[in-house]
Amino acid sequence: YERAVAKGVKIYPELFVAGLCIEEGQCHGVVALDMKTGELIPVSAGVTFFGTGGYGRVYQHSTNALINTGSGIGMAYQAGLPLKDMEFVQFHPTSLIGTNILMTEGCRGEGAYLLNNQGERFMQRYVPSAMELAPRDIVSRCIQTEMDEGRGFEHPLGRYIQLDLRHLGSKKIIERLPGIRNICIDFIGIDPVLEPIPIMPCQHYSMGGIDVDKRCASELPGFYAGGECACVSVHGANRLGGNSLLDTIVFGKLGAQAIGEDLEDGVPRPDEKAILRLKDKVEEKFRRLAAPGAEKPYRIHAELGAVMNEKVGIFRTREELEQALDKLIELKRRYGDVGVSSPVRYMNYELTAALELEAMLDVSHTIILGAILREESRGAHFRTDFKTRNDGDWLKHTIARMGDDGSPVLSFKDVTITRYQPTERKY
């Protein structure tokens, strides 16, 4: 943010994008709500770039910021753009219980142990060659297995496993992990110098997103996306620690270069009338949400997060995924009766929550359907009824488009294999 301001980039912190304008196979800009005034503002543009973040907040427990609702992804999907590989959702193995705050891999990198309620370093039984330093998806599944089989600890906020730093000594903990120590003291009153940290797996990263190429360009002229809301697919089915720098630094630059090149070549002029037509549609949506309704957005959001956590989490089965799908369809039906408490538009965060919720429901629909169709286990997507990776049938991307009835229509496309051929992951 500071660098953008230093470069003279105009920032509009109080604008909330309420609609993406795509007509006749071209992106024309967006319609935004000015939170300070309640005014709807049409913004026509020859080029639109989304960097709206991932969709972690469709889950009840997520390390993501509250803004990571996936609303930008959902908005692009609703406007007709395809989403890719939405079923691939990463769960970080170590979040501080009751807070959703990430306990960095640096803890285990410094030598922390994972302990069950019997005092065992249980990773010895699963991945003895890597122990606590195995990839995130593997460690998360091991922790979840320990808890599911009764070897976790019980707490009013949920089951947990211990992350033990004590053997590192106070000097090393204070010097190497001061932030972790302060978080534990401030948020749950535990000093990791003296006590193990209670941790649990938590949704952390979205591998799926808006389908773009390595220039961050979508299939439509004028629309680009980068960061966690986009899926170039550099992460495949499971991002490695630190590799989201590719999303930000690398593709931020490549996307900017691509836009510069395309502007030099000439981009189609946006259609001002198309933007105004979208503004009218958004106005109608606002009027509907301002009418009395039996449902409130926060209630539906809470139920969505709970079912995603319980049925579309670390371990997945067809039965539970279909139960999640049934619940999702019920929530989408109930969304039609959502009404906000006040018709006032300025600084009305219940209104923006209601707008985001519609996108969250659509995004969750693509996650669930993709997970049902992918009858294998790959990276962070683990089906207990299909436990192995199946490159013969499933070495392909899942593509989701919104159908005429508002439900996802899924198709598949081949994975581009370049220098390195896929091999079995072994530890």
How would you describe the overall organization of this protein?
There is one protein chain. This protein is an alpha+beta fold. The protein has two domains: 2-88 and 207-414, FAD/NAD(P)-binding domain (3-Layer(bba) Sandwich); 91-204, Flavocytochrome C3, Chain A, domain 1, CATH 3.90.700.10. 37% of the residues lie in helices and 18% in strands. The strands form four sheets. A five-stranded mixed beta sheet has the order 13-11-5-14-15. Helix 10 runs antiparallel to helix 11 (318-335) and helix 11 (318-335) runs antiparallel to helix 12. The radius of gyration is 22 Å and the shape is globular. The mean pLDDT is 95.
In brief, what are we looking at here?
By secondary structure, the chain is an alpha+beta fold. It is 37% helix and 18% strand.
What features would you highlight for this structure?
427 residues, alpha+beta, FAD/NAD(P)-binding domain, Flavocytochrome C3, Chain A, domain 1, 2 domains, five-stranded mixed beta sheet, five-stranded antiparallel beta sheet, 13 helices, 18% strand, globular
What CATH architecture of the largest domain do you see?
3-Layer(bba) Sandwich
- Across the major sheet, the strand order is 13-11-5-14-15
> What amount of the residues lies in strands?
15-25%
First and last CA, distance: 41 Å
